[in-house]
Amino acid sequence: MQVAGKTATPPQRTPRAGGGTLYLGLTLLAITVVAVILLWFFRQRLQEASAARNAPLPVLGQVPPFTLTNQLGQVVTLNDLTGKVWVADIIFTRCAGPCPVMTLQMSELQPLWAAEPTVKLITLTTDPLYDTPEVLRAYGQKVKADPQRWWFLTGDKAEIARLAVQGLRLTAVPVPEAERANPADLFIHSTLFVVVDKHGRLRAVVETQEDDVEEGEAPRQGRSRWEREAKPHLQAIVRRLLEEP
Description:
Largest sheet: 6 strands, mixed
CATH topology of the largest domain: Glutaredoxin
Radius of gyration: 32 Å
Strand content: 15-25%
């Protein structure tokens, strides 16, 4: 029935409050579940990373006995390095390629263990006929090599090759004369630093130089691989090996 002059207004529906509350609750539950899953995932990754850091470094091989001569003219054998942790590389003093950079990098390791007498640095030469103890001594003096800490070793070519290749997994290949880019282009050799433990066992191999840049590729920006990866990695490896019996 209508009242004169007035229009009947249909009753308004009141929104159900329970639907919005339910939606909000389900959303919060979903967010909580996702957060718990992510937290579990990251915790697992942290535990795996921690386990990897604490796991013993692998034994990559045994360094064979050797007899060589250092830059002071002193005979050096594997026995002289027993009980020491040592970092080694291979260069030659006439090298115009990576050798000067590698030698500067090795020199940066010297002060890291200035107070640790059980750490040695070893540099082998691929060119023993030219790199006599006198030549190596002068070469080392240019980078302020401490002869009590850092030995440049020369000697019989076959003995050096056996130590480098069989013991330290370093390579050095003569460049044929017809293929040399310049008179100093004598060898192609590893740019690795390797780490040997107190028992003469090879425990780590670390690349120190940048990967080759492909033609047309933009030069890499920022810190070098040495600063970014290799140097901190070597520090951590040596620290761990010093803690081993």
